[in-house]
Structure formats: structure tokens, C-alpha cells
Amino acid sequence: MEHITITVPAGRALRGKALAGVVGSGDMEVLFTADQGQTLTIEITTSVDNSRGRWEALFNRLGLVSTLPAGQLVIHDFGATPGVARIRIEQVFEEVSYA
């Protein structure tokens, strides 16, 4: 198991908490807790070793298409594809934006 911490600038403030997905074969769980800071801190536990570059690329891409919210994002990954990862992350951000 690999543990990765990434901190990226945040450009919007949300309120609340959200959960998307479940840890299981080929899937992942994403938990988001909003705060009023200026960064998004991402804590990733993944079964895929040496994947830091893939995660950094994913968050760089997300930051290009949308303004990332401030808060804490916790990801428990069990080998999800980049597409599933993006969907789960966008789901928690969307859920909290409606809170």
C-alpha cells in the first residue's frame, strides 16, 4: 500500500461533507470535508505502488477544467482506473456544492 499526500491551491469555498464510492475490486472511496482555507489537501491510500505521478496529473487536469474547492479529500483506492477516480472525486465536489 502506498500513502500519498498532495496539496493544491483551492479557488472556491464550499460547506459540508460528502462520500462517494466504496472500497472494493476496481473501485475507490472518496470522502471530502470542506473548509474555508486556501488549499485542497489530498490524502491517498492506494494499492497501486509508484502512482504519485498519475494522481498529480489527475489533479492538475481537474484544476484546469474546474476550480478546486478548499478542504480535505481522503481517497481509499483499490486499483480504480483514472476515469473512475475522476468520477468519484467530481461526485463528492458536486454533492457538497448542493449542501
Give the amount of beta strand, in percent.
35-45%
Walk across the major sheet and give the strand order. Answer: 1-4-5-3-2
End-to-end gap: 33 Å
Radius of gyration: 12 Å
Give the rounded overall mean pLDDT.
92
Q: Which spans have pLDDT < 50 for at least 5 consecutive residues? A: none
**SS content category:** alpha+beta
**Topology, number of strands:** 5
Which bin fits the share of residues in helices?
Answer: 25-40%
Helical element count?
2
Largest sheet: 5 strands, mixed
Large-scale geometry? globular
Subcellular location: Cytoplasm
Family: Belongs to the MdcC family.
Modified residues (O-(phosphoribosyl dephospho-coenzyme A)serine): 25
Pfam family, one: ACP
Please name the defining characteristics of this protein:
5-stranded mixed β-sheet, single chain, alpha+beta, globular, 99 residues, 30% helix
Summarize the structure.
The model has no long low-confidence stretch (mean pLDDT 92). The chain is 30% helix and 35% strand.
Structure description:
- Belongs to the MdcC family.
- It is found in: Cytoplasm.
- The chain has a 5-stranded mixed β-sheet with strand order 1-4-5-3-2, covered by helices on one side.
- Strand 4, helix 1 and strand 5 (71-77) form a beta-alpha-beta unit.
- The longest helix has 16 residues, at 82-97.
- It is of the alpha+beta class.
- The radius of gyration is 12 Å and the shape is globular.
- It has 2 helices and 5 strands, in the order ββββαβα.
